[in-house]
């Protein structure tokens, strides 16, 4: 007899299952995919660890979460320093003194600040009406035109002048020569990939996993059989889209094995022009400083989302947030179902946030 059914073997479901098993509970897990791990799943191809669902870099400021995840894998010292390719010109990210030097030839922080200020003043935008105006009012026209406009328009599938200003609240600008994308104290990539983290979390004889199994193919039975369900699928689907569909942006990944050792010299290169249809290229071996004779790259194409395609990024505008709130009200009335994870909470979560959220639920539920 199981104590819990966990729907989804992603990081949320697996963290909860691990904690429940530790407390002596018996856990059944199902996943509709043919592998565990949800979107953090990695697999080895040509001796290279491939991030199947896009680049995943673990980062956190929280010592507790860092210690927690380090129980399940050893991490390397990978530091995320993506670069931007704009019509063949390379710029460092996040926007920093290296970026400003390349753009304007400036050398000191004062010169860079003066340049940005000059462009912001020239644009003369008092109250930004859309994302384009918001971005220019924050960082000026050069950075916007070369590094923000094309990338953002590809990501959202809409013109920046048609996107609401609130999407960009701030744009991190750094007046040092520091290319480290994250400000967090801890970051890295698990040596050997992310799948082992999930495998190790689920390595208990109290946990049993069934793949290729969709909750909705047998929902009534599951609801009857299990005393409690942790559900990490789409919340609107759980309620049969009663209030309509929540919207997402989707992605298409196109991978290739190349007969060369090093394709782009960096794990992540963003394409910030409007013409290139993909928004970035990942070269997986650089996450682990790989020296294999071949290399694997993945082009990432932002796509619109339709029911049935993979939902990657929630579109948290007012319309969707209101709809989600209605679903959340229904969810709170379900005494035997706990909703969690990025799809259950309709929220973009980084990995450290998913672990923290699952641990909070586990504490409330198990202790
Ligand atoms: P996740 O989606 O991983 O798991 C849910 C599971 O439930 C899936 O396996 C799914 O198949 C299953 N499921 C859904 N419905 C079901 C049903 N009806 N029946 C059975 N199973 C069902 N974070 C970070 O910290 N650093 C990073 O660099 C990145 N990079 C990144 C890139 C991209 C492209 C994306 C989209 C996301 C990131 N992330 C990230 C975020 C990271 O992917 C995220 O935090 C976790 O994967 C979320 O874990 P969940 O368990 O919530 O969902």
Give structural notes.
Belongs to the UDP-galactopyranose/dTDP-fucopyranose mutase family. Its cofactor is FAD. It comes from Oceanobacillus neutriphilus. The protein is of the alpha/beta class. It has two domains: 4-78 and 186-247 and 314-366, NAD(P)-binding Rossmann-like Domain (Rossmann fold), CATH 3.40.50; 95-167, no CATH class. It contains twelve helices and 16 strands. The strands form four sheets. A seven-stranded mixed β-sheet has the order 7-6-12-13-14-11-15. Strand 3 (42-45) and strand 4 form a beta hairpin. Helix 1 runs parallel beside helix 12 (351-366), helix 4 packs antiparallel against helix 5 (131-139) and helix 5 runs antiparallel to helix 6. The longest helix has 16 residues, at 141-156. The protein is globular, with a radius of gyration of 22 Å. 38% of the residues are buried. The model has no long low-confidence stretch (mean pLDDT 96). It binds dihydroflavine-adenine dinucleotide. Dihydroflavine-adenine dinucleotide is lined by residues 7-13, 30-33, 38-40, 53-58, 214-216, 232-233, 251, 312, 341-343, 349-352, 354.
Task: Give the secondary structure arrangement, pairings included.
Layout: E1 4-7, H1 11-22, E2 27-30, E3 42-45, E4 48-51, E5 58-60, H2 63-70, E6 83-86, E7 89-92, H3 97-104, H4 109-123, H5 131-139, H6 141-156, E8 186-188, H7 195-201, E9 207-210, H8 219-225, E10 228-231, H9 235-238, E11 248-258, E12 268-271, E13 280-283, E14 295-304, E15 313-314, H10 318-332, E16 337-339, H11 341-344, H12 351-366
Parallel strand pairs: 1-2, 1-10, 2-9, 6-12, 10-16
Antiparallel strand pairs: 3-4, 5-8, 6-7, 11-14, 11-15, 12-13, 13-14
Helix pairs in contact: 1-12, 4-5, 5-6
The structure holds dihydroflavine-adenine dinucleotide.
The site of dihydroflavine-adenine dinucleotide has 35 residues, from helix 1, helix 11 and helix 12.
